[in-house]
Write a structure and sequence with these properties.
It comes from Maridesulfovibrio ferrireducens. It holds the Pfam family DUF6485. Helices cover 31% and strands 0% of the residues. It has 71 residues and is mainly α. The longest helix is centred in the middle third of the chain and has 9 residues. The chain is globular and about 35 Å long. It binds iron/sulfur cluster. The site of iron/sulfur cluster (SF4) has 11 residues, from helix 1.
C-alpha cells in the first residue's frame, strides 16, 4: 500500500493532541491518516481503537479488537 504523507492531517503539531500509542520509534505518531492507512493495509486498527491496557499488547489485529469487544 502506498504511504500517504499530508500536512493536512498532521496532528503532531497540535498542542492538545495526545496519541495513545505507546509503541516508540514509529514515525506515524500524530500523523493519523498515515497511521490508519498503515494498519488498514495489514487488516489492523490503530492504537486509538483500543483501551490503554489492550494497546500495550501491541496487538492491532481486527480479530483482537472484536474479541475484546465481545468480553
Ligand atoms: S498505532 Fe501503529 S502506526 Fe499508529 S502511531 Fe502507533 S505504531 Fe505507529
Amino acid at each position: 500500500m502506498k504511504t500517504v504523507r499530508s500536512d493536512k492531517c498532521n496532528n503532531v503539531e497540535k498542542e492538545d493532541f495526545k496519541c495513545p500509542c505507546t509503541y516508540t520509534g514509529c514515525s506515524r505518531h500524530g500523523i493519523c491518516c498515515e497511521c490508519l492507512h498503515y494498519h488498514r493495509g495489514k487488516d489492523q486498527l490503530p492504537a486509538c481503537y483500543f483501551t490503554a491496557e489492550q494497546e500495550k499488547t501491541y496487538n492491532r489485529n481486527i480479530d483482537f479488537f472484536i474479541e475484546c469487544r465481545d468480553k
